[in-house]
Model the fold of this input.
Amino acid sequence: MYNLRMDTNSSDPSLDSLMPEALAIIEPLVTWLVRSGIGHSEFAAALKPVFLAQAQAELERQSQKTTDSAVSLLSGLHRKDVRTFRETASDTLAQVQADGSAWGKPSAANQVATRWLSLDNAADALPLSGEANSFDTLARSVSKDVHPRTVLQELLRLGMVREEDGRVYLLRDAFVPDASHKEARELFAGAVADHLQAGVHNLSSQPADGQAPRKFLEQSVFADGLSPESVQQLNLLANDLWSYVLRKVVEAATPLCEQDAEHPNPQRFRLGLFSFASPEFKKTNDGSQS
Done:
């Protein structure tokens, strides 16, 4: 009934085909693409330079020549595509990676909302200004470069707060992003990309200089055979746990960010938690699902 994944690097992915796992990972993405009007041809064409750039990077990692033949063989692309995209593939991949990093960095408005949520016994409403624990004070504690009114306008636009009678009200239910906003897509993409990066790193990184590669936290808890009422209980527990995790991580990260503000080689960190529930699908003897 219960399955606790404790070691994401327990098997060698080179021993058999990864296609079943890859299809399971990409199936929700295909759902999103189809619902958004993006078909196979458009997506496959966009993938070509990404496959090419990753094949080049893998050959370089293995100290092999990045000839058209070698890249074609490793990427599965036709040599004509290799010649067509070779000059732009690195730039395309760099843009994809830069987007992922940018989407992982919260705006000043998101930082203020996160800091607000992390406060002990966080109030649902703050005076706009004039008091020590006002919205203005909170916003300035996050950024002195962005005016509190600008932050407030962005939070209002995103539907995360409302302003009334000189007070700002935090709309906790709005922290599931509104799908109509571009920011929601970017937050989702950044979080999922980092999750996959952690898993791929754990599964495929090789020892360097005799040292075992660093492992990222990538675990989950799974339970099945549940009623909808039991799932709701677990969802409520997950929300409570996330509130605690959020508060503790923000408490630890805030002074560290201030301490490392001028570090010459900055890195980013993300800790995520998600929950999901759906009907169970079981394969029948003829291969269909029931």
The chain is about 55% helix and 5% strand. The longest strand covers residues 2-5. The longest helix spans residues 228-259.
